Amino acid sequence: MPPPSLVRLAVVPEPAHIGVVRLVAVSMGRLAGLDEEVLGDVRLATSEAVGRAVAAHRFHVFADAVQVELEVVPAPSGRLCLRVRDCVALPEATGRDAVELVQKATEDEQGNLRTAEAAGTAPGHRLVTADPPSMAESVSLIAAVADEASVTTGPDGTVVSIGWRRR
Amino acid sequence: MDLSVDTRTEGEHTVVAAKGEIDVYTAPRLRTALLDLVDAGRYHLVVDVEGVEFLDSTGLGVLVGGLKRVRAHDGSLQIVCTHERLLKIFRITGLTTVFDIHDSVEDAVTSA
């Protein structure tokens, strides 16, 4: 089996760069042999995760780069793992609701879509109202389009990990 | 990786045709276009995303924000979209129940 390949990107927190990371992620997904529909999911989840991290850095006026890792196990086994690391400690993170949501979604096998729906009616979440979507919506989308999604947090920041397997 | 936004009038409706990618970087352009129309008294909007190759939650946020503004004037914001990859995002977020989504601009302007 070919060894995994790893690409690391240091992304200055500028919105214009999010599209560049999407392109790299899709290229790595092709190496993993993911099909076109899944590559669409990779684009979306990458945009959501990197966009969230860039927004968190900008909100806190952090000039530090957001760290992105893309690890590929090439086809035929075919796996892609995206890790997005920001420097915003959870107590101050703008995505706190989002973190709770993704944890809930990934704990429950059928939770992805139900989380998005439930969040629309749960106190404190307003996914399906005529208000602009919160950060929670971003992470609900990630959980719905990935095979695996998890969040780890600590004093040094937050890491969102997202994985896809070749079907 | 860019977004163009063109507007045209069709009767009482204003059609906003977006082409390209809508993300954190480009979404402010669409937001500005929608706000300008509302400021100009155009409250029945049809946003045509048939030319949109990519849309994330930032773009959804702009559409929801636009809907909220036109509703404040008893207006409407309808979507024209047939691409499955975009419809999937509306479904995941539950927004298919918030927006009227049509197959064509003609359908949208005649439905109201």
Salient structural properties:
heterodimer; A: 167 residues; alpha+beta; 5 helices; B: 112 residues; alpha/beta; 5-stranded mixed β-sheet
Radius of gyration of chain A: 15 Å
Amount of beta strand of chain A: 15-25%
Terminal CA distance of chain B: 34 Å
Strand content of chain B: 25-35%
Spell the H/E element sequence of chain A.
EHHEEHHHEE
- Measured as a percent range, the helix fraction of chain A is 40-55%
Q: Structural class of the helix and strand makeup of chain B? A: alpha/beta
How many E strands of chain A? 5
Return Rg of chain B in Å.
13 Å
Summing up helix and strand content along with how strands pair, one would put the structural category of chain A as: alpha+beta
The largest contact between protein chains, plus residue counts on each side, is: A-B, 33 and 25 residues
Show the helix and strand layout.
The complex is a heterodimer of chains A (167) and B (112).
Chain A: E1 5-11, H1 18-31, H2 36-59, E2 66-73, E3 79-85, H3 96-107, H4 111-121, H5 135-145, E4 148-154, E5 157-165
Antiparallel strand pairs in A: 1-2, 2-3, 3-5, 4-5
Chain B: E1 3-10, E2 13-22, H1 27-39, E3 44-55, H2 57-71, E4 76-80, H3 84-92, E5 100-102, H4 105-111
Parallel strand pairs in B: 2-3, 3-4, 4-5
Antiparallel strand pairs in B: 1-2
Helix pairs in contact in B: 1-2
Task: Outline the structure in words.
The complex is a heterodimer of chains A (167) and B (112). Chain A has 167 residues and is an alpha+beta fold. Chain A has 5 helices and 5 strands. Chain A has helices at residues 18-31, 36-59, 96-107, 111-121, 135-145, and strands at 5-11, 66-73, 79-85, 148-154, 157-165. In chain A, helix 3 (96-107) packs across helix 4 (111-121). Chain B has 112 residues and is an alpha/beta fold. Chain B contains 4 helices and 5 strands, in the order ββαβαβαβα. Chain B has a 5-stranded mixed β-sheet with strand order 1-2-3-4-5. In chain B, strand 1 (3-10) and strand 2 (13-22) form a beta hairpin. The radius of gyration of chain B is 13 Å and the shape is globular. The chains are: A alpha+beta (167), B alpha/beta (112). The A-B interface holds A 15-16, 18-20, 22-23, 37, 40, 43-44, 47-48, 51, 54-55, 113, 116-117, 120, 127-133, 137-138, 140-141, 144-145 and B 1, 21, 23-25, 54, 56-58, 60-62, 64-65, 67-68, 71, 85, 89, 92-95, 97-98.
